[in-house]
Design brief:
69 residues; mainly beta; four-stranded antiparallel β-sheet; flat
Length: 69
C-alpha cells in the first residue's frame, strides 16, 4: 500500500510519512520531498512539500514559546 519509489525519512506521529520522492527519477541525487497520507485514497495520498531536502530544511521553524507554560 506504500507507493513505490517513495523513501520515508520522517514520521508525523499519526502514521503519515515525510518522504523522498524517486517516482519520476529513481536515480536523482536531489529528489523532491512529499507527504504521504496513510488514510487517503491511492492517487490522492501523496502531496508535494518541497523541491528538495535543502528547501525542506529551510521551511522548518523553531516552535514559538508558549507563554502559558
Amino acid at each position: 500500500f506504500f507507493p513505490k519509489n517513495l523513501v520515508a525519512f520522517g514520521c508525523t506521529g499519526n502514521g503519515d510519512q515525510i518522504c523522498f520522492d524517486y517516482r519520476s527519477d529513481p536515480k536523482t541525487d536531489n529528489p523532491p520531498i512529499v507527504y504521504w497520507n496513510h488514510e487517503a485514497d491511492i492517487g490522492q495520498d501523496v502531496s508535494f512539500v518541497a523541491n528538495n531536502f535543502v528547501e525542506f530544511i529551510r521551511m522548518l521553524k523553531e516552535p514559538e514559546d508558549d507563554e502559558n507554560d
